[in-house]
Design goal:
The protein is 46% helix and 13% strand. The protein is of the alpha/beta class and 443 residues long.
């Protein structure tokens, strides 16, 4: 049964509308959509919407320095920026400092953490994590320790280190409760604690954001099942034997979403949906027995909740990331204006759903099994998948070799339990190393 503590870790009751945001991964697909949303807010700021604009306090890119320059020109009041590629930073920093004398630049992954601290000290209230992979873990945990809102677009963070993040949040809540009790007297609600002391997580993945919108505010005992939807990827209607010979270009040709290469590869094998299932388990404190996935080819319905009476509550929109991004940043306030790409329901395709075929998507089954096993199993799975996808994109293994490599790593490494971040980071490191070694041996 779904616990009364469902959604508790999100701490959404303490959320405030974003005024000043740090965007990590600003040159990627989600980061790019975030920048476009911030630009749209600038365009509608007027007497009717005097506070529509959000300040871009800081941003990071990996090696896309040209895109960084474009954004800094578009947002000249941005004060902090990080280039996480050491090579790109060293090559371009002199020119960047000449052109943007008012910006403080940070180098590498550790520099990005320093940038977050500097931006929060200067008044930033939200960190949007749109970096791909396990790289977002340290940034997310730092933002939570600093007590700001995290707009989470990095599913690997919860998959790899869910128990550690859960423990961190519970410690933060306990400290806030103690401080509130000391300041206002015993019996006062946690909601009376000082703002800024209480971290908030709002999901930006379209599926998790949809689930949040559907179930937040519902009594948990009204919910029978929570359902994430999946497009099924480009091979959902192919004969299974034909998938053995797919090309890189075919894998990257997603039928409904425009995403980065890593997420697109994950989607083609529905590993992304397995990772999202694990993330949903941690974000919403929902048992795996009450989490499910259905294929919905047109991607208009992003999440559903089945209620005790057999009814369904849906969250739907045209498939575009601006909808969940805007919701998370503006929450609890409404988004100030309709999105330009919004469409009315009469223009939508018919809503059709299918069950997932395990033999067509073996990677999805591995994800679910790892989630149910718990401990460091999800961290091992995620790290092995990241390495397998990299090897595939580099042409070193075939598409159907991805789940096989993941399974071999999962079978070879021990699974540990605990809440210390170090055990999850070590599992991540060991899984990457073993995945690389296993792939080399099979050459």
């Amino acid at each position: 049964m779904i616990s009364e503590r469902c959604c508790e870790l999100l701490n959404a009751g303490a959320a405030e509308r974003t005024r000043s945001v740090v965007v990590l991964g600003a040159s990627g697909s989600v980061g790019g959509s975030t920048i476009e949303f911030l630009k749209s807010l600038k365009s509608i700021q007027n007497e009717a919407n005097p506070e529509a604009r959000m300040h871009l306090a800081a941003l990071s890119v990996h090696g896309s320095v040209d895109r960084l320059r474009e954004i800094l020109r578009e947002f000249p009041d941005t004060k902090f920026a990080a280039v996480t590629s050491d090579v790109a930073y060293d090559e371009h920093i002199a020119a960047l400092r000449r052109e943007f004398a008012g910006v403080v630049f940070f180098r590498g992954s550790d520099g990005a953490l320093g940038m977050i601290e500097a931006a929060v000290d200067a008044g930033a209230d939200t960190v949007l994590t749109a970096v791909v992979g396990a790289a977002g873990i340290q940034a997310t945990m730092l933002a939570l320790r600093l007590g700001v809102k995290v707009a989470l677009a990095n599913k690997e963070t919860m998959v790899t280190a869910g128990p550690a993040i859960e423990a961190l949040l519970r410690d933060q809540f306990a400290q806030a409760t103690d401080e509130a009790s000391g300041q206002a007297g015993a019996g006062d609600a946690l909601d009376d604690a000082a703002p800024g002391k209480r971290p908030v997580i709002l999901p930006v993945d379209s599926e998790h954001n949809a689930i949040f919108q559907v179930i937040h505010g519902l009594r948990p005992d009204h919910i029978r099942r929570v359902i994430l939807t999946a497009s099924g990827g480009p091979f959902r209607d192919w004969p299974i034997h034909k998938i053995q010979q797919v090309s890189r270009a075919e894998v990257l040709n997603h039928p409904t979403w425009s995403m980065g290469p890593k997420i697109t590869v994950d989607s083609a094998g529905m590993i992304n949906k397995g990772l999202e299932l694990i993330e949903a388990h941690f974000l919403f404190s929902i048992p795996y027995a009450q989490l499910d996935v259905l294929i919905h080819k047109d991607s208009y319905v992003h999440g559903m909740a089945e209620t005790r009476d057999g009814g369904y509550l849906l969250c739907a929109s045209r498939p575009h990331m601006v909808f969940p991004i805007a919701h998370a940043l503006c929450y609890p306030d409404p988004v100030p204006a309709p999105h330009a790409m919004a469409t009315r329901p009469e223009a939508w395709p018919g809503l059709e759903f299918e069950e997932v075929q395990p033999d067509r998507y073996p990677g999805y089954a591995l994800c679910r099994a790892a989630g149910e096993r718990g401990g460091t199993a999800p961290a091992i799975l995620n790290a092995a998948n990241e390495e397998a996808v990299r090897l595939f994109l580099d042409g070193q293994i075939g598409f159907t070799g991805i789940p096989g490599l993941i399974e071999s790593v999962l079978n070879a490494l021990p699974v540990e339990s605990g809440v210390q971040l170090e055990i999850f980071l070590e599992a991540d490191r060991a899984a990457r190393e073993l995945a690389r070694q296993t792939a080399q041996k099979s050459d």
